[in-house]
Design brief:
330 residues, alpha/beta, seven-stranded mixed sheet, 7 helices
């Protein structure tokens, strides 16, 4: 029996999103298509929403060895799009090191538009092999907030960076008037976590993570994210440096600091205390108009609390994209 439905012109694992302003002036979706194992869901828009929200999912909550996902996203002029998830993206064990699970994201952000991508972290299982490539093409006035983070695996089952390989690459290209000689590469950030690193570095992957259970990268770019980027740079520059030792007792230090510090300084002291408790190590740098934040934490929850607290404290994401954009980090 012939199917009454037209044949799909997409291949397995492909998806396409086009975000555009609706006739009523609110952000909305013009196109949403996907095929297994990719799944895309967007809640019904509301009159007070600040950005269109799309959930990036996979059937069964993860990707089986050998799965491949390719998602193309277009954020048109003056539109804001938030992409989130409903839990960790699980990467299941591959039958052999040659079977690679892949996920690709190709994004174009047009004039005065913005994309906020704050998903849950990727969780590679023991024996998994994963490669991820995310390419963002932006105009001079476009904005981008990208969080890319990975966990040690299923710690409750004793997994501690027990996968075969995890590779992630993020690229940001400038197009349009700001790149007169064609698209210009602004940033290429690559992270390779490989159990075979022992042969090259003399230490295994687990040892090289120094007890961290989470590693992440936050990339900020564009005028919408300028204030947030400056916030991270300022907070990083205010971190205590080597040689800045405080010889007061812990009790005296806490009492005097609590009495003499402003609300902002008290928050910073509280944050530094939490960073020590959760083993947070982080840095921030400005690179060709992008602010890149690298961070690690002893636990996934500790890392989530830290990045969520930083983003909430500064306030740009909730102000411009709405609280839903923050659901994976708070």
């Amino acid at each position: 029996m012939l199917s009454p439905f037209p044949k799909s012109n997409t291949t397995k694992g492909e998806g396409h999103i086009v975000a555009r302003l609706l006739p009523n002036g609110l952000p909305g979706l013009e196109t949403v298509t996907y095929r297994y194992p990719l799944k895309l869901i967007s809640p019904t828009p509301t009159a007070d929403q600040k950005s269109t929200v799309v959930f990036l999912l996979s059937y069964g909550g993860g990707l089986v060895g050998g799965d491949s996902i390719q998602l193309a996203v277009e954020v048109t002029q003056n539109t804001k799009l938030s992409v989130v998830t409903q839990g960790h993206t699980k990467i299941f064990k591959s039958p052999s090191p040659d079977v690679v699970t892949r996920q690709g994201l190709s994004v174009r952000v047009d004039k005065d538009a913005g994309l906020c991508l704050l998903p849950d972290p990727v969780q590679p299982f023991a024996g998994s092999v994963y490669e991820q490539t995310q390419v963002f093409t932006v105009t001079a006035s476009a904005s981008l907030c990208l969080l890319d983070w990975v966990t040690q695996g299923r710690s409750a089952r004793g997994e501690d960076w027990s996968f075969v390989r995890w590779k992630g690459r993020n690229e940001i290209w400038l197009t349009g008037e700001g790149a007169p000689a064609g698209d210009r590469l602004l940033l290429r950030d690559t992270v390779v976590l490989d159990e075979g690193s022992h042969a090259r570095t003399g230490r295994g992957l687990r040892a090289s993570m120094h007890g961290h259970g989470l590693f992440g990268t936050l990339i900020l770019r564009g005028k919408q994210m300028a204030r947030l980027g400056d916030f991270f740079l300022a907070e990083f520059s205010s971190l205590p440096r080597l040689g800045a030792r405080d010889f007061r007792s812990a009790e005296a230090r806490e009492k005097e600091d609590g009495n003499n510090k402003s609300t902002e300084e008290q928050w910073r002291l509280s944050r530094l205390k939490a960073e020590k408790q959760h083993g947070i190590l982080w840095s921030a740098a400005s690179i060709r108009g992008c602010v890149v934040v690298k961070f690690g934490a002893n636990t996934v929850e500790g890392g989530r609390l830290w990045i969520g607290d930083m983003l909430s404290r500064e306030g740009t994401i909730s102000e411009l994209y709405g609280d839903q954009a923050m659901m994976c980090v708070t």
